[in-house]
Amino acid sequence: MPLTSRTRLINPRLGTYFGIFTSAFVGLFMLLLILEQLGTPRDLLSIAMLAGPILLYSAIGIATFTREPYEYFAAGRRVPAMYTGLALSLSAMGATGLVAITGAFFLAGFDILCLMLGGLAGFVVMAVLLAPFLRKFGAFTIPTYLGRRFDSRSLRLLAAALLAVPMILMLAAELRIGALAAAVLSGQSMSLTLLLLVVAIIATVTLGGMRSLAWSSVAEAIAALLALLVPVAIVAVLVTYLPLPQLTTGPLLRSLVRRELAQGLPIAEPPAFAFQLPGEGLSAIAKPFATPFVTVGSGAFVAATLTIMAGIAAAPWLLPRVASTPGVYEARKSLGWATLLFGVIMLTIASVAVFMRDFLMDIVVARDAAPLPSWVGELANMGFASVDNRAPQLGMTSFAFQRDAVLFSLPVAAGMPVVLLHLALAGAIAAALAAAGAVVVTLGHVLAEDVVAGLSWQPVEPQQRMLIARLSIAGAAALGGLVATLAPTDPLKLMLWSLALTGSTAFPVLVLSIWWKRLNTFGATAGLSTGFAVATLAILAGEAGILGWDGALAGIFGIPSATLAAVTASLATPVPSRLLLELVHEIRVPGGHIVYDHEMRMLRMKRRQR
Amino acid sequence: MIELKERKPYWRHTKWQMIASLAPFLLVIVVLPLYAESLNVHKFLGFPLGYFLAAHGLFFIAVVTVASFVNRQDVIDHWHGAHEDH
């Protein structure tokens, strides 16, 4: 397997396969568009838009069935850079990013940029500091890497236990937003659609593990990107005559800024560490779009950027994806693609917010012309928005929008056919499946490899190993569904907490484990536990209002204290053994064999000799 | 495969490349948004300049940073013979 040339490993027909998927997805959309014009009932259209793509993803996941551990845990290490980058950017963004951040952007404008900039910086930091080395090491999960890197089984278990917490939070956030989108699309209750999503994830990823995840999430990412870009591009053509919303919203924004000044939206300077994100449910527009630092203080902006950066860079559900690229060079390149696509999504989301604000501003300015346009009534009927008619004059603040529905309001506000609304909803579901699938597979692999089979370094027999992994993945998906129903918290908050926890727990130790060879087992243990404890305390204190800081900024306490703890504990204890130092030297050089695969081969050979 | 005596210079080179890639990028991403308010007075393509630089500008800088890192680190790998065999 690893002996053959890297380029020969890549399937030359990948482009064809995903071309077929894309045409099937576009074809379904076109067909529904035609059927809508022919007067097909709306229920039928929405069921087709919900079930069609999910069946396609599941078909891809089932078709990539495998019994080979190397395929199951690392997708055979032959996912090319662009495909990895595509899946990485969409899994990092997730449905929470697409849906909740668009809404927050619409309501609070500039201040929400900190969430997106954090993700963007996270990919850059991951590319430079972590990804190439983790690819060279080749471990299937982050706890396995830490355990082998420090030759400590207890560290492996500790890392698995601590990192499971942010993963479960993330999973709950993604499933909740995905279930919400599916509920709006199908008209069923949220608990039913949640169950549907969990079943879809289990069907998609249990049979092929990372291999199924890699290829099905590429398909999901393509669907989500199309569903995001197409409605916005159509609106852009209608409004600005160019299908490039990311660049052409400028003049629109300019007049928006001028008109917002006349509306008298609040522009008070907040305390430097205020962090007021729009919550779930209906909320009014908080501030002028382009004015910085009204709901989020300047200090909190920087703190949130850095916290999210560390969280994305060390995310245990994103990093192992890099291990499935064909080589170290491709691992770096895949992060380049991820940065590019993440940025495109960020700018598109920003333009959705500008278009929605512009539509709203048109109503407010033209208030003398008698009735409200029909789309306002439609949005109010769907529960997406509400209008306060009591005031004598309509202002920007008379409208309240549901944060998690702004992305779906755009096709309605632009007066597009209902199938485009369905497309936007299907895109959010695809993003939720991609992100939740990534977390489920990682959580399952951590459970199977590091907890159940982690007590000995000897690899379990392949047949047994597969069975444990499949059961763990299904268990992880079920657990996520359970948490999503039991913890009815704002998904955006869940995501930010999860990233703050990951950033504080894993980021300092992972970076030091590569860039500072003096770090020993004690240091790593101290770093992991201190980071986790401090971040948890900061989140709890933030929620209880003791600290006056929001829990989402926990990383700003967690990261320095974890680094400090790791460094002091390492310096106070003996220098790591020569064997471990040799291992670090090995990880730092891209050439040569994949460390983890080599070790596993050695262990197998030893056992055969016995 | 890399020679033993090449490992030290290789890692020194890599470290400098890491600093050269990350330091300016992190500096810009932390400092630039703080000046967005005063930059917003100016306009570019119709966008308020502060907003434009914080969204489009930082996106551009991030992509250029990763792209240049990938290429230059690859050159460093080949220079010291640390690259993967093809």
Distance between the termini of chain A: 24 Å
Biggest beta-sheet profile of chain B: 2 strands, antiparallel
Q: What would you call the shape of chain B?
A: elongated
Sheet-strand content of chain A, in percent, reads under 5%
Query: How many strand segments of chain A?
Result: 3
Oligomer: heterodimer
Secondary-structure element pattern of chain B, one letter each: HHEEH
Provide the succession of SSEs of chain A: HHHHHHHHHHHHEHHHHEEHHHHHHHHH
- Mean pLDDT across the residues of chain A is 90
Spatial sequence of strands, sheet with the most strands of chain A: 1-3-2
Low-pLDDT residue spans of chain B: none
The residue fraction in helices of chain B comes out at 55-70%
Secondary-structure class of chain B: mainly alpha
Question: Which secondary structure elements does this structure contain, and how are they paired or packed?
Answer:
The complex is a heterodimer of chains A (610) and B (86).
Chain A: H1 6-9, H2 14-37, H3 42-63, H4 69-74, H5 81-108, H6 113-137, H7 142-149, H8 153-186, H9 190-205, H10 209-240, H11 245-248, H12 250-263, E1 282-284, H13 298-313, H14 319-322, H15 328-365, H16 374-382, E2 385-387, E3 399-402, H17 406-413, H18 418-452, H19 462-486, H20 491-505, H21 507-515, H22 521-544, H23 555-572, H24 578-588, H25 595-609
Antiparallel strand pairs in A: 1-3, 2-3
Helix pairs in contact in A: 2-3, 2-10, 2-18, 3-9, 3-10, 3-18, 5-6, 5-8, 5-10, 5-15, 5-18, 6-13, 6-15, 7-8, 8-9, 8-18, 8-19, 8-20, 8-22, 9-18, 9-19, 10-15, 10-18, 12-15, 13-20, 15-17, 17-18, 18-19, 20-22, 20-23, 21-23, 22-23
Chain B: H1 7-31, H2 36-39, E1 43-44, E2 47-48, H3 49-79
Antiparallel strand pairs in B: 1-2
Helix pairs in contact in B: 1-3
Structure description:
The complex is a heterodimer of chains A (610) and B (86). Chain A is an all-alpha fold and 610 residues long. Chain A is 73% helix and 2% strand. Chain A contains 25 helices and 3 strands. Chain A has helices at 6-9, 14-37, 42-63, 69-74, 81-108, 113-137, 142-149, 153-186, 190-205, 209-240, 245-248, 250-263, 298-313, 319-322, 328-365, 374-382, 406-413, 418-452, 462-486, 491-505, 507-515, 521-544, 555-572, 578-588, 595-609, and strands at 282-284, 385-387, 399-402. A 3-stranded antiparallel β-sheet of chain A has the order 1-3-2. In chain A, helix 3 runs parallel beside helix 9, helix 3 packs parallel to helix 18 and helix 8 (153-186) crosses helix 19 (462-486). Chain A is globular and about 85 Å long. Chain B has 86 residues and is mostly helical. Chain B is elongated. The mean pLDDT of chain B is 90. Chains A and B meet through helix 6, helix 12, helix 13 and helix 15 of A and helix 1, strand 1, strand 2 and helix 3 of B.
